Here is the input.
Amino acid sequence: MQILNFIMALVECPECKKQVSNTAKVCPACGYKLNTEMVKKRNKVIKRSILFALIMAVVVGLPIYISYEKERQEEARISWERYLEEIGKPQSYLEVHYVLNGTDRCWEPIDFVALRIRVTSDELNNVPFKESKTYINWTDYARRKK
Here is the structure.
């Protein structure tokens, strides 16, 4: 209730215990002459307490926030590096093999309209490749596979 009183700038009259403005010289309810020094001192203590609490919140919260941000930046950096590594890797035979033999059913000629295997470097799993190959359909792929 004290915080609410400070925000509203109200104090309690020592005589009748009613809420009175902290700038009033006398209580409007009972006419008691308010001690302005007492009111100022009380307001000063409350202001200092709030200021101390804010400073402590900053002192404690700032390092926590900085640590959290550094952790997020590190995670983003690691994620970015992994992404760049994946982009730089050539396509592997296993990926192509999975595309061709990834299910238990038989492949029909209609299954592939076009299949392009592109090699992004001179070697793929330590096997040299000279060019990309484009297979027009499954039948062409099967013929070239033999």
